[in-house]
Automatic annotation (TrEMBL):
Domain of life where this protein originates: Bacteria
InterPro entries hit by this protein: RutC-like_sf (IPR035959)
The protein's name in its UniProt record: Uncharacterized protein
Length: 60
């Protein structure tokens, strides 16, 4: 199973978190503990980490 699913211009990443190495960079719930801007940053970080398996070029 792929770690992501792309439909048109949307990318679905289920079960992944934004992290650097083993450290999770964004914790909490969007709107409660994490701002919308932080949510965007977390999504970008997650996509960057999942593309090539080494945190390199990523999916974006």
């Amino acid at each position: 199973m792929k770690p992501f699913h792309r439909v048109g211009s949307l990318l679905f990443l289920s079960g992944h978190v934004a992290q650097i190495g083993a450290e999770i960079t964004h914790r909490g719930r969007l709107g409660a503990d994490v701002t919308v801007e932080e949510g965007y940053q977390a999504a970008r970080r997650t996509g960057d980490d999942r593309g090539d398996g080494a945190g390199g070029r990523g999916l974006f």
